[in-house]
Amino acid sequence: MKITVLGAAGNVGRRIVNEALSRGHEVTAVVRSADRIHELSPAAIGQTGDASNIHDIVRLSTGQDLVVNATRSVTSNAEEVVIVTETIMEGLASTGVRLLIVGGAASLTVPGANGKKVIDDPQFLAPSLRHIGEASVAQYEACRGEMRVDWSYLSPPADLKPGKRTGQYRLGGDEMVVDSQGTSTLSIEDLAVVVLDEAETPRHHQTRFTAAY
Ligand SMILES: NC(=O)c1ccc[n+]([C@@H]2O[C@H](COP(=O)([O-])OP(=O)(O)OC[C@H]3O[C@@H](n4cnc5c(N)ncnc54)[C@H](OP(=O)(O)O)[C@@H]3O)[C@@H](O)[C@H]2O)c1
């Protein structure tokens, strides 16, 4: 497959690039500044582009099979995240390319908590980080109702950090996946496995899904 990864030098993006390359895909890895191209695997096609620029989205998606958005704004500003999401949707509506967004966990519901959302549960999101949760809630809302693009929105578990690639995970929908201890966790390496499994065998169309151990 020909896959474009936006935010390719980020914590999540670089692992998605590496997982895609290891599976033999042709990867266009997009960074905002040419200074960061050297951080990318030499096996990827390094390109510069801004996800809030529709001309860049059209240019970087034309002829591709899939675009993965792994960008995160520095301030996690909800307004900026929505602009980026809407710009990507607009661009892909014109090029007809499928989209997989790596978003946030905040809008997931907490199992057994009467519909309470992760953003409102300090066990999973510290109140000091609420603005980050609000940005991801706004991002997901910007996707819902978008009928022109074949999109899917992957909510990571509450606890996502670098670790080992095990290839193991469980999928969920709108409810956070937790283990027997009530924790919701995944390594970023395994999140990249989830992304590439979905890329190769699409199961989620115009909907959200999640994954955790
Ligand atoms: N538990 C959770 O819910 C959870 C945990 C972690 C991550 N995430 C999500 O995973 C995604 C990626 O996070 P991350 O940790 O990998 O972030 P990160 O390490 O900060 O990387 C984000 C990348 O996005 C790039 N970027 C930002 N705005 C852009 C734009 N307009 N156009 C192109 N590139 C842009 C940045 O490039 P520059 O270097 O140019 O700024 C940066 O390389 C985010 O959506 C984040 O919310 C969720």
Give me the number of helical elements: 5
End-to-end CA span: 27 Å
Q: Which second-level CATH architecture applies?
A: 3-Layer(aba) Sandwich
Small molecules in complex: NADP nicotinamide-adenine-dinucleotide phosphate
Short overview:
The chain is α/β, with parallel strands linked by helices. Helices cover 31% and strands 21% of the residues.
Core attributes:
Rossmann fold; binds NADP nicotinamide-adenine-dinucleotide phosphate; globular; eight-stranded mixed sheet; alpha/beta; 213 residues
Task: Explain what the structure shows.
By secondary structure, the chain is an alpha/beta fold. It has one domain (2-212): Rossmann fold, CATH 3.40.50.720. Helices cover 31% and strands 21% of the residues. The strands form two sheets. An eight-stranded mixed sheet has the order 3-2-1-4-5-6-10-8, with helices on one face. It has a two-stranded parallel sheet with strand order 7-9. Helix 1 (11-22) packs across helix 5 and helix 3 (78-95) packs parallel to helix 4 (130-143). The chain is globular. 46% of the residues are buried. It binds NADP nicotinamide-adenine-dinucleotide phosphate. Residues 6-7, 9-13, 32-33, 36, 50-52, 70-74, 84, 102-105, 136, 156, 158, 160 line the site of NADP nicotinamide-adenine-dinucleotide phosphate. Residues 6-7, 9-13, 32-33, 36, 50-52, 70-74, 84, 102-105, 136, 156, 158, 160 line the site of NADP nicotinamide-adenine-dinucleotide phosphate (NAP).
